[in-house]
Amino acid sequence: MIVPLSVGPGTLESTMTEDLSPAERYAAARRRAAEQATALASFREMYDFGLDPFQTEACRALEAGKGVLVAAPTGSGKTIVGEFAVHLALLQGKKCFYTTPIKALSNQKYADLCRRYGTSEVGLLTGDNSVNPDAPVVVMTTEVLRNMLYAGSRTLLGLGYVVMDEVHYLSDRFRGAVWEEVIIHLPESVTLVSLSATVSNAEEFGDWLDTVRGDTQVIVSEHRPVPLFQHVLAGRRMHDLFEEGEGSKKAVNPDLTRLARMEASRPSFQDRRRGRAMREADRERERRQRSRVWTPSRPEVIERLDAAGLLPAITFIFSRAGCESAVQQCLYAGLRLNDEEARARVRSLVEERTASIPAEDLHVLGYYEWLEGLERGIAAHHAGMLPTFKEVVEELFVRGLVKAVFATETLALGINMPARSVVLEKLVKWNGEQHADITPGEYTQLTGRAGRRGIDVEGHAVVLWQRGFSPEHLAGLAGTRTYPLRSSFKPSYNMAVNLVEQFGRHRSRELLETSFAQFQADKSVVGISRQVQRNEEGLTGYKASMTCHLGDFDEYAALRRELKDRETELARQGVALRRAEAAVALEKLKPGDVIHVPTGKYAGLALVLDPGLPAGRADGHRGFEHHDGPRPLVLTAERQVKRLASIDFPVPVEPLERMRIPKSFNPRSPQSRRDLATALRTKAGHIEPDRHRKRRSQAADDREIARLRSAIRAHPCHGCHDREDHARWAERYHRLLRDTSQLERRIEGRTNTIARTFDRIVALLTELDYLRGSEVTEHGRRLARLYGELDLLASECLRAGVWEGLSPSELAACVSALVYESRAGDDALAPKVPSGRAKAALGETVRIWGRLDALEEEFRITQSEGVGQREPDLGFAWAAYMWAEGKGLDEVLREAEMPAGDFVRWCKQVIDVLGQISSAPGGAPVEGSTVARAARKAVDQLLRGVVAYSSVG
Question: Beta strand 191-196 with 159-164: parallel, antiparallel or unpaired?
């Protein structure tokens, strides 16, 4: 008898019991009694809703003593499985650690578990907060657990379960390695609960977990408890992305396809300016079309959603400034989403949550503008906001008092802020290096916020129409519900000394070979080997097709390739020679020289403000970030101050004139730039630059080229009528041969890759006396307790006594260089730093980095592979110094030119590293020195005002 899944257990009993024999009824009763005796039965009673099949399956596996990997869509309730692990731990008298990727999610989970189990049973450990750390259930960030494992913390005693929420975060190229470190190093007795978004290779990840953690059951659910509908908002009309129909394969709405085709065929504004005439009928049709299709403004979008009953909504804008601007636009448009009662409730809650913030700081933080938006039901949410402000927005949104949130994609990561609708303005975002299309995985993560379980019948994802919009591309993103999990694991210096200290060098190497990164690399070799076999078969066919009856065509083709390579090499040399001449000319420039920039975005007249010569480029190491010589800072005739690169000077440049730069000139002042640019045009605007003469090509006089051309003409195959046909086959043969050789090298490179990188790191640490064979020295023991991207640099600075004798404020400035990474481009002005001892210590820190950088190059440890020490960034040193000195928030933020949220985040990271320095073990000069005391005082001086506001309440 087949029973539909929707039939509940009680109904099933009533329909089937009558047909059972007495023996079968007895057996059924025993099964029910056994079910009632399980931990799952008592767990179910804690919730006022039934568990989904995938949740029940995962909980049963956990109770049976297995580890689990649960891969399910956002909002499907997979955290229920994590909470069951907490329930089991408390029943069994064991500990459970619940780990999350970000502090905000840790704070939220801590609050949830406190409500269920009470504050005495639940603790919190993040970089900022330590609340009841010895509780049986502790919520923490993943890095905190990693640090515990390496330190051998006593808190690990009695640990029975670890929940890793958002475990797919191990794909993150900056922090993902931490997840693998934890999974590999957890004691075997600990049961691991891995919760992931839906990934396409869950079985592969499960196989790896089975290998390193023992029996692990993989539970995958594709079902969304609240169905998601996809829309495109074009002008005033909301179009469905897919047309209605049966079957799993959905077709794109033909109305959208037709609209996109019409839009593509419509001449652009630039086309019309070029003089393309349009008939009156065409103009009329375009006017009608434009009345239907345009990108609606942000207030229009919210009004449209409000009218359709689709609020609350989260609009994802991939820019902090864009989020703040969106709120302002809605306020200027007079948008009000709250009535008077809701406004009063908002104001009451906001005043309660921000009562600890001094009145003088409220204005600096933009409090009143922020409150005005909240009262109207509108808010921004991004990393540049004060943590307290972000938490208030989250709480108001969950309570339904904020109905429109404009957020960056960081909100999509785990924070419990479900909405009825999600809006995406664009399908392109800045990924840290370039503007790129969002991936299907990112689209799934963002739109997964739409649809509140138990509140909404359906969720809605809305994409705004943009010129050049492709419905098929969007359908591809929306239809691809999964994405692959890729390891980002790389060994680090801290990891190396910790592993060697605990397991010895040989065992450490074996442990790293068990990483998911190596597991994936080894599996991929199988596919590459098959491709090599197919290529070899193709090479045999190409070889036959290029055979010539007049002679050896392979030999003839080799001569042609040699000629081409020689011509390319000479052309490259010519370019390099011109660049070298241009670089020499740039090195001769002085402040006040008037030049003509020959090409590029800033071509034309310019005044040299700073020649931009590489400083401190000693011993040939790659310490200077830019490899292309001088980068002059100039003022253009159009009043722009820009740092140029060698690409802007393909030919040598000579000064046309000289000008005096006023001492009062401030490049940040529009008035100063305007006055000096006017003087520049007056002084040299009439001067015509010399035209650079093109030199004779080197190829014309090259003996080797002449010899090769003669050999080609003399070869028998040169006279073949099918010569060019044979040559095409020969070119394909050579290209496939090159590709095959690359594949073979990849096979060699992927075998034991992690272990080889570990060997190079160990060799460098041995050179610096952090390791001696399998013994960790006193310097190594200190490095083992310094966690961070610049762990080795911090250790070397301590070892060299660079920070000895510094005041707490000066030490805070120096430590900031180890954590801070500026968002500004290369053309940013040199950062301001404290004078005196701090300036000297920062200079010495950079010089030590230079020596380490050269050493890494010698040992083939490269930052491009995700290993190695980046250059320290001095951009936060002045802000950290001023704050530690007790300066006001207004003054510090104005000098730092950064949002309050960023300032608080960087301060807390500086505090974290200062805490590590104050407790770092190992010999001189740390023990008994001034550094540890100064670090403790610096923490106290930084931890005040906005930085000290607790995010746990």
Answer: parallel
